[in-house]
Specification:
The structure is a homotetramer of 253-residue chains.
Chain A lengths: L10 E6 L2 H4 L6 H4 L3 H13 L4 E6 L10 H5 L3 E5 L9 H13 L2 E5 L6 H7 L6 E13 L14 E10 L9 E8 L4 E10 L2 E6 L12 H14 L22
Parallel strand pairs in A: 1-2, 1-3, 3-4, 4-9
Antiparallel strand pairs in A: 5-6, 5-7, 7-8, 8-9
Helix pairs in contact in A: 3-7, 5-6
């Protein structure tokens, strides 16, 4: 018996386009991510959430990149990694994912997913940013270490080599800024932000890249596990498309 | 010389789909809106902002529903009324308007424009609501009468007959809730809300319908004029599409 | 085993000044609240949260109005009802409660507690409002029925007789507006709002008055029980005063 | 004739406790601030806002630290610098300043004023932070360079030597985060944040210290001038204490 949220019934899908892995780009990607970026992310979640059901899917998964209506209806939290192939994601799938988020599915956008079709659609803005890939040290600071996503995480998280993502970040004013990152080159980035969109909870977390082993970092894994528990809303009645539309109630009072 | 904002250089476009007028639907629409909904809205703005340049355009305007790149680049604030023909608005025009808002053009969504392509794209959510059209009295209350959009406006604004729009309203948490409306039937609605999106300021204001002479209401006209001045950002350098993208700065520090 | 939050370990204190009860004001207060306002509130919480530990205290409780350091350190969520005797609450107790909220204790302000020393201190604003006591019908609408505090609650909650509280409500822009109330007289009020303050979660809920049996209303009781679970943060490490101060870390990077 | 805000009618008071100057602490304070911190701040404002009326006052000013009812009623924006003598500020003066901010006076808190009585009262939280005084380089980045306070300011502002202020910063979730600072030691801070409190606009800006000539920095001066214009609300009807209280309107509808 516990009053804290647990992982007992969390149903997770880690989606990765999987294109960098196919192209062996960078050349060392299979050295650091032998099971793909999605494999490393899923492994980290399973470490922290041993009872959760964690599945993966990629752009090449069939049908529908692995994101059918049935799969999404059976998913509490979807994590999304994409970079080189945003445009190849089918618009009907984007529409479906978007609808499920508004209906209550949690969504975690990872790193270059800032430019994914789903995330930009949820935000309604450019989601553009400044970037520089020189393997700089990133420090990830919590503005509120007691936030459920930051709890139990080192403050700061030290990532020895990362791509720099910097401000201005073209997003709507977040509901919460959980993490702020600084880089060796002096830049700053709102690296962990949350939004409520419809019934769904959205978390964007920028650390993580195909060139660096960031998804093996124990503290990054802890953040993502916390994010999954935060985005999961046990007991929520998920809505489908029709129920998300307008209603025309009679006068009652 | 004054330190307050004035209307001297505000360039406004009032866009209306104009379909109800064409269809004479309702039958009395030409009685209450002889110059169309856009005509009445533009008239009200010109009353309050005599030096502003107020133009109108409709779905039938050519080319591009009257919203070419040249027109938008020459517009400080765009007001949008639509209801029956959201789907007929060309996606390329929607894309263009969206880009100009993110680049700094003000946008005011009116009444049933909650479901317009531009507004839902800016919001990223369903924008659905409850509605009932029985000509109920609407009272529009300011949560903060000193807000620039509410200043000098009766509190409440009393609208004798209106369509009811009620919660839940499927929008992101607004930056500001300026107005809350109650209806004779007891419902409530966040009827005046603001957002910052990119460099642009967005205001949604729900009073106004093709069946009722709401856009002749002096207080509603005052709100819209205030809204135009609020959404206008004199001195702002408007960005175009390219400048809204990612940047790749060298290391400087 | 469930992943939802439960009441198993929630330690609650319902605080009520208890002055109206002492004065028999109104004359019928003992008819509707034989165990005091605090008694009715506590009863409702225990109905919904049978495993929670619910205690009560009043202005007359000794020492320190029942709110010693030991009691607060042993409290997860404090509910506060006050009206006639805000000024009689000892400033040292206010300071203590404020510190515990910032350290992570949940706080629920009820009705006329909008003017309590603790609530106004947490808000930093006037917290003033419009009021009229004519026993009007209040309808309490959820802006988002899936919010944890609104979940499972009738929408709207219908309260046959209540004091009217209306806008403008002099509070900071809330993190979330969970409920909006309308009154028979047409007024509107942000009747359920949430804030994060320090590590603590704050919920203000306006329905409830010494003249009406609102705290016996089943839906109001459900809201308060939901509010307690929402304000409770299982697993949070509570901070004490010293830990809330500035730190002077050495350079590490 | 311009529609942009100008400085023609801005009435500014720069308040500085003036204690470091009296104590010659640090020894070189008179070298970098011969006219006091307030003198340098006022000089910078006058450079950018030549038509503004800029006055100064200190803890030693009589009566009431120079902040009488008459002075405040004649002030549009008050800037506040304090560090060593927060406790010596008379509570009645704090109450008065607080009331004027809620009534519509702009307030700009500077650097160590995070711990001033007025600022903590407006925030309702600890306002604590991490600090280290080793003369580190601070980079001040705009999250939105088009914000009125950031407009025309170098991005980033480079301050060669400054005290480090770092997260977690114990403030409520800001309405806007305008600036984020990074430090040579890798820390991060929300160094420019805005709030609406009552009718007043509040801006906190952290750069500036008694040991470094930060208030001579041209870009810092530009930020403060922008902040003054932003916090000033021309045409606003200032409220006094009585008008900030509750109202008891009759039923009208």
């Amino acid at each position: 018996m516990s009053t804290a949220r647990t992982d007992a019934e969390v149903r997770v899908v880690v989606w990765n386009e999987g294109v960098h892995e196919e192209r062996n780009h960078p050349e060392w990607i299979r050295d650091i991510y032998p099971a793909g970026l999605h494999g490393a992310i899923a492994e980290g979640l399973s470490e922290h959430l041993p009872q959760a059901r964690v599945r993966t899917a990629t752009l090449a998964s069939t049908p529908d990149h692995g994101l059918t209506e049935e799969v999404l209806a059976d998913t509490d939290v979807l994590l999304w990694w994409g970079h080189a192939a945003h445009e190849q994601v089918d618009d009907a799938v984007v529409e479906r994912v978007h609808r499920h988020v508004l209906g209550g599915m949690g969504f975690i956008g990872l790193h270059s997913a800032h430019y994914s079709k789903v995330f930009t659609r949820l935000m309604g803005t450019t989601c553009s940013l400044a970037w520089r890939n020189e393997g700089e040290r990133e420090l990830v600071w919590a503005t509120d270490p007691s936030h459920p996503i930051a709890r139990g995480v080192a403050n700061p998280v030290v990532i020895e080599k990362q791509e720099m993502y910097g401000e201005p970040f073209g997003i709507p004013n977040p509901d919460e800024v959980v993490f702020l990152s600084t880089f060796a080159g002096g830049e700053v980035f709102r690296s962990g932000v949350t939004y409520r969109r419809g019934q769904g909870r959205v978390f964007y977390f920028s650390p993580g890249d195909q060139e660096y082993p960031v998804y093996h970092h124990p503290e990054v894994r802890k953040v993502l596990a916390n994010g999954v528990l935060w985005a999961h809303q046990p007991g929520l009645e998920r809505l489908t498309g029709d129920e998300l539309g307008c209603t025309n109630p009679p006068r009652r009072f």
